[in-house]
Amino acid sequence: MSEIILINVSGQDKPGLTSSLMSILAEYNVAVLDIGQAMIHDTLSLGMLVKIPGQEQLSPVLKDVLFHIHHLGMQVRFTPVSEEQYEAWVREADHPRYVITLLGRRITAEQIARVARVISENDLNIEDILRLSGRAPLHRGGDNTRACIELSVRGNPLDFDAMKEAFLEISQELGVDISFQEDNIYRRNRRLVVFDMDSTLIQHEVIDEMAKIAGVGDEVSRITEQAMRGELDFKQSLARRLALLEGMDASVLSEIADRLVLTEGAERLIKTLKTFGYKTAIISGGFSYFGKRLQEKLGIDYVHANELEIRDGKLTGRVVGPVVDGARKAELLKEIAEHEGIMLDQVIAVGDGANDLPMLRLAGLGIAFHAKPLVKRSARQSISTLGLDGILYFMGVKDTDTPV
Question: Is residue 19 packed enough to be buried (19+ CB in 10 Å), middle (13-18) or exposed (0-12)?
Fold first, then answer.
């Protein structure tokens, strides 16, 4: 009768350990049912679930493994597993699998403890924990540091909405972003990333920059804030703001475009996406003049935004064609995906305003980026602690996998 044994090896890593250990097991025709290894600093933890062919081979196998591991100066533990326990473990594979991602400037024990408590309270079990961010030096910190860990959990959550509320509370209190996604085939197979422009891909609201030059900055900023919070219909707010810019000399557009500052992580993200073969798009309630400048700078594939009407070298205070509002953003996202032959589940959409919500909800992964509270609460995922390149962590991409 075969025996199932869980073997746990730990200690300072030794080159050739796996090869030598497997060679011993191979002599006894041992089957490996499961195996996993993790390295923390220079310490290894190796686990193997094995099936030893017969009772008579159990003692020789364990003796040889014990002698070899002790000879290497490491520790080993053997745990018998009954057939009933093994079959129960096999059945757990039918339970849904989710990924919970914690990202911020740093990760603390308190953050992990709070998140783990929510996981446990929702009848989920943590199976794996993986660090996605690079190795952080002790004495170099600051605003541009990144930290991220990914938790793989399995089970059926008791209450999705309650989990989201709990994660939002932890995020606000402890300064960490928390993503909760189903670990399905689409998570690592996204093909298109769509960006809002103003206050997402760039650090500015361009219309506010234009208004400052026109001397109506305060008035336009107030209307912009109301629109971004969802307190005003976007089309009406755009019309009111543009009307205040009537007669502005169009030459100022180039001046404004020259001094626009990209959001932290934007160039790194776009470069990585292009390396991986992703399509990218700007779908913005801002203006196509600036979107096209960004397209040239970053190599964006598609740009859809409002076109300013210009006559005799001056702004008329109107736009040409249909206004790109929230509903139109969602339509354009769908059109691009269909043109590229990409399923909506393979699309990532990123934005910060209420007018971005329709496309955030339509995309397989919708991310509210440094968004207003209403938008952050309404979107499925959000980032408030890092730059745009934090999106790579939501995709499961490690720092070591990126070109920069």
Answer: exposed
Termini Cα distance of the chain:
54
Q: In angstroms, rounded to a whole number, what is the distance separating the alpha carbons of residues 130 and 127? A: 10
Q: Which CATH architecture has domain 95-182?
A: 2-Layer Sandwich (3.30)
Interatomic CA distance for residues 293 and 297, integer angstroms: 6
Please state the domain extents for the chain.
3-91, 95-182, 192-401
- The angle subtended at Cα 73 by Cα 12 and Cα 21, nearest 5°, is 85
Token digits of residue 244: 């205040």
As beta bridge partners, residue 46 has 9, 37
Intrachain domains 3-91 and 95-182 with the same fold: yes
**Given the residues 177, 183, 196, 233, the one annotated as active site:** 196
Q: What is the mean pLDDT of residues 300-326?
A: 96
Q: What is the pLDDT of residue 16?
A: 92
Half-sphere exposure in the Cβ direction for 194 (13 Å, CA)? 33
Give the CATH H-level superfamily of domain 3-91.
ACT domain (3.30.70.260)
In sequence order, the β-bridge partners of residue 47 are 8, 36
- Among 303, 257, 266, smallest CA distance to 387 is for 266
Catalytic: 196?
A: yes
Task: Render the burial of 68-80: b for 16+ CB within 10 Å, e for the rest.
Answer: bbeebebebeeee
Query: 250-263 pLDDT, tens per residue?
Result: 999 999 999 999 99
Q: Between the CA of residue 120 and those of 89, 113, 151, what are the distances in Å?
A: 18, 10, 13
Task: Please give the Cα distance from 129 to 135 (Å, whole number).
Answer: 16
281, 301 contact by CB (below 8 A): yes
What is the DSSP code (8-state) at residue 92? G
Q: Considering the candidates 177, 198, 208, 389, report the single residue annotated as catalytic.
A: 198
Q: In whole angstroms, give the CA distance from residue 44 to residue 14.
A: 9
- DSSP three-state, residue 178: strand
248: CB partners within 8 A, 6+ apart = 210, 213, 214, 314, 315
CATH of domain 192-401: 3.40.50.1000
- 202-221 pLDDT, tens digit each: 999 999 999 999 999 999 98
* Contact yes or no for 257/297 (Cβ under 8 A): no
